[in-house]
Amino acid sequence: MKLALFDCDGTLVDSQHSIVACMTAAWEAHGLGVPDPLEVRRMVGLPLVEGVALLRPDLDRAMQIRVAESYRDAFAAMRTQGLLQEPLYRGIRETLDALDAAGVLLGVATGKTMRGLQGVLERHGLTGRFVTLQTADRGPGKPDPAMVHRALEEAGVDRRSTVMIGDTTYDIQMARNARVASVGVSWGYHEVPELLAAGADRIVHHGTDVATAVLAILDGH
């Protein structure tokens, strides 16, 4: 058995506009001004409170938690109002189909909550495509290897037959910590030189190229 484990935000879907809007609303709710959109993008993938801490290390932990709660409230409001913008990247659906056809199991390891991830999958008709869903509300987040370890156990796959696909150094570091191979994607929220420095085994520049890179690694090429 083989497993392709995907990050969500910045890899499967482009959620930056919604994330920045919700973080801006959270900051404004606490009189913190307006966050830098580029810096908000860079924290995507971390557990939410850790992301807030990265953005505002000057705040005490209690305030960081309250900002994170305000972010969740803003996100829930956008979901209820149908305002979330989380389109699939071009070529992703084709890549999932190609990996399916090759007999590779699919999974997700994301900093989203399970509710948030399931919402994305439902909106794009991807519910049931993944054999394992790992989210930050189930245990330690990236770059801790716990999500990968749980995914391997649930899928019944060996680490040597697994590839992690992601757009941030947190994804690549998690893969290295779990001793699985990794593919970095160039269309997300961290730069290619950063992904390479973090240890990505391959870099791809289009959604349809992911399957080719994953299969090459799994086949030992």
What report would you give on this structure?
It is a single chain. This protein is α/β, with parallel strands linked by helices and 221 residues long. It has two domains: 3-14 and 88-218, Rossmann fold; 16-80, DNA polymerase, domain 1 (Orthogonal Bundle), CATH 1.10.150. It is built from ten helices and six strands. The protein has helices at 16-29, 37-43, 48-55, 61-80, 92-101, 114-123, 146-155, 169-178, 192-198, 209-218; strands at 3-6, 105-110, 132-135, 162-166, 181-185, 202-204. A six-stranded parallel sheet has the order 3-2-1-4-5-6, sandwiched between helices. Helix 8 links the parallel strand 4 (162-166) and strand 5 (181-185). The longest helix has 20 residues, at 61-80.
Question: Any descriptors?
Answer:
221 residues, alpha/beta, Rossmann fold, DNA polymerase, domain 1, 6-stranded parallel beta sheet, 10 helices, 48% helix, HAD-IA family hydrolase, hydrolase activity, hydrolase, HAD_sf
* Main pleated sheet: 6 strands, parallel
Largest sheet, order of strands side by side?
Answer: 3-2-1-4-5-6
Beta-strand fraction estimate: 5-15%
Structural domain tally:
2
Q: What's the helical proportion of residues? A: 40-55%
* Oligomerization status of the protein chains: single chain
CATH homologous superfamily label of the largest domain: HAD superfamily/HAD-like
**What structural class results from the helix and strand content?**
alpha/beta
Rg is 17 Å
- What is the CATH T-level topology of the largest domain? Rossmann fold
SS elements, strand count: 6
Shape: globular
Ranges where pLDDT stays below 50 over 5 or more residues in a row are: none
CATH architecture of the largest domain: 3-Layer(aba) Sandwich
Protein name: HAD-IA family hydrolase
GO molecular function: hydrolase activity
Organism: Azospirillum oleiclasticum
InterPro entries: HAD-like_hydrolase_sf, HAD-like_sf, HAD-SF_hydro_IA, HAD_2, HAD_sf, PGP-like_dom2
